Amino acid sequence: QVQLVESGGGSVQPGGSLSLSCAASGRILSIAAMGWYRQDAENQRVLVARVHEGTIYYVDSVKGRFTISRDNGKNSVYLRMDNLKPEDTAVYYCKAEVRDYSGADQSIWGQGTQVIVSS
Fold this sequence. Notes:
The chain is mainly β. Helix content is 0%, strand content 61%. The chain contains no helices and 11 strands. Strands 2, 4, 5, 6, 9, 10 and 11 form a 7-stranded mixed sheet that branches. β9 (90-100) and β10 (105-109) form a beta hairpin. The chain is elongated, with a radius of gyration of 14 Å. The protein starts with a strand and ends with a strand.
């Protein structure tokens, strides 16, 4: 069983910061990519940031404020969120594209962590 466990999140005032962490565990041969999605009150899960080798993607609304980083040795990905805005309020989900030792590729989701930005 491959699992992603998220930590971080919480409630902050606008302009504040939070750091999210996500660690993959289990019988993993390789991880091609890791990223962060969020699901807001409209119930749409959208990609926020993703890292694959040297390629990093950010959705326009978080550029300059969020920083994604990956530690391949720890099978972990992190999201530093600065200058948070109320519109960043959402449940944040980690996703990894994993290959297990059977050769199967699968997308694995974390459990989600709530981020609330309000005054």
